[in-house]
Amino acid sequence: LSAPGGVSLVVPQPNINATVAQNILLSVEYSCRGIATIEWKHVSSWGTTKIVEWRSGNYINISTVYKDRVTTFENGSIQLLNVGMRDAGYYFITVTEEYGTNTYGTIIVNVYEVIYEDLHFVAVLFAFLAAVSAILICFMWLCNKSLHLFQKKTTHKLTASTTEEIELETIEC
């Protein structure tokens, strides 16, 4: 985009998809004849926040909310460290030339949560439940075997004592 006063701004990537805790580069390239002031704002459902403002070659004024998370570059770009869900939204850049001419740019940032952590939890839970069920199956098998052995011994004793009774009865006759 080029304004009549000679300020131009190029936004090579107007849409950025990021995941939580990722670092993102909001890349722009501006040019103008004089000294420019660059200002970045973030607009989302939580409101509008001024991120940073600086004059080429001079001061940099970073918002306290972004103090440890923003790096500025001379071409007008900024890097946002450790993005979260609240960082999703519209990022507006305004480049103002010292003579009052300005131009605007917009970058849309979508931030997604990492689903792999949830899948990891489900996999670990599934493995734990599978191990517990395997242990219970083995325990039930052992109980079943013990029960069969106990029943065999009891049946064998009963058979022996019945045979003796039958023999005793025949002798008495």
TrEMBL record:
Respond yes or no to whether keyword Transmembrane is given for this record.
yes
- What is the gene called? Vstm5
UniProtKB keywords: Glycoprotein, Membrane, Signal, Transmembrane, Transmembrane helix
- Residues annotated as transmembrane: 119-143
What organism is recorded for this protein? Anhinga anhinga
The Immunoglobulin domain extends over: 13-112
* Domain of life of the source: Eukaryota
* GO CC entries: axon; dendrite; plasma membrane
- Compartment list: Membrane
Q: Which GO terms describe its biological process?
A: filopodium assembly; positive regulation of excitatory synapse assembly
SMART domains linked:
IG
Protein's UniProt name: VSTM5 protein
